[in-house]
Amino acid sequence: MLKFGLPGLLLAVVCVALSTGAWSSAASAHAAQQEPPPIEAYAASPTVELMELSPSGDLIARIVVTQEARAIAVTRMDTGEHLFLSTLGETKVRDLRWIGEGRVLIVTSQTRAIPFVGVPRSELYFGMVLDLASRKLVQVLDRTEGVLSVLYGPASVRNTAQGEALFVRGVNVDSGLVDLYRIDLNSGRGRSVKSMTLETDDYVLDGEGAVIAYSRYVDFTRRWSMMLPGGRVFRESWSVEAPIDTPRFHGLGRSPRTVVIGADRPDLAAQDTDADTATNLFEVNVDTGEWTKLPFEHHPHALLHHPETHLLVGASRMEEDGMRYEFIDPASASRWRSITRALGDKAPQLMSWSADQSRVLVFTDIGESGLYQLVDFDRRTADILAEAYPAIPSEQVGAVRPIRYAAADGLEIAGYLTLPPGVETPERLPLIVLAHGGPAARDVAGFDWWAQALASRGYAVLQANFRGSTGYGRAFLEAGYGEWGRKSRPTCPTASAGWPISTSSIRAGSASSAPVTAATPLWPG
Prior knowledge:
The structure is a single chain. This protein has 525 residues and is mainly beta. Helix content is 8%, strand content 40%. Strands 1-31-32-30-29-33 form a six-stranded mixed β-sheet, covered by helices on one side. The protein is globular, with a radius of gyration of 25 Å. 40% of the residues are buried.
């Protein structure tokens, strides 16, 4: 979630209670409570940033953080034996994935330029493969002739007939091609398996790592084309003029010869009323070219694929009270129902699962600063593996309530109100408003360290999803065009009203919180 820097627009402090009596009484009540953690505890990075189960579920890899330094750690679950630990420095870690049972892919990024090939200063992505047997880290695309060791797009992991495989695209500075490479997991060297150009916009791999669909986008004509196999060559199956928002592939569909595509097809399906764009999600048969709208009740925000087959099994959607899941695979649905029955009031989020789905890693932060838990269906247990903010105990986490209020022109605005720990009502508290960035973004009902830090010092904190925020439908998103910082503000009562926004103008829901984490990225792989 984006926020503006301090000082300036990070804290849009509005309608602060000017009554000395109101502030002093609230401050005195808060001071009588347990001493809050230091501000540094909130401003610190979470102790764990990424965590992934191995296919068997016996091992777990995680990125741990000390101050600003990251390290990769691998542990055997049943014995607690540490198999590997190595520092990664102060680099940003973007992805963590298992390649079979013995290797781990680590994707990092750095802001840098490559002057000798004309790459300007930008965010560049790099891959490393950790081999647990040799205890070595090798760089992806290392020593690949003419190819930069920079990832062009996301990586894809597959379990093929020849063994575990890693596929990435790389830029050949000699030919100008951006081919798809299969990586030698021992050396990091890449071997081209599919010729691609800069016009190759996207692609989908089947379970064996073969390209079964790709797309082309021509800047000059602004035309996007879907290419499907037709004999020995790929043919254009469908195309559309797309000057701004192009269609996108989202991995495999429900069967090995189908792909998921997000596209605006009014001839096939009406726009979802709860979608931010006109895009619908379709399943396309790559052999027949037949399109079928996916049967999700609500427009998903992220898709879920099976950890072993990579077939589509469900989707997730961020709602007012946290992340919600909808499964179309019966086995996956049954597993998740069991988890929600046990942890439903905590709004669990799916982080990772073993290949047979017998072990599932979930994250919760309702009334707490964040817990990673391992659900073991064979043992019928749920064990805590790590805390995101161990220095912030649950009794020092303020309640987060979904609220709604009327903007200056009457439009209903949703948001979240965080109260100081132990405080039940927002009466006679000074208010701070945190405005998210974007503006096409949103705040969510999760543990937000900015909001919790301020609440711990006696403030009520409002995070408004003003017009133009995502997650509330296309009409609400477009209502923000040209209105940045304008109509969404409520009318401020006088200071004598006690609380900056009258409680009668706000409908508060039940306390809740949940993080924004996509269960599966909406890209190939």
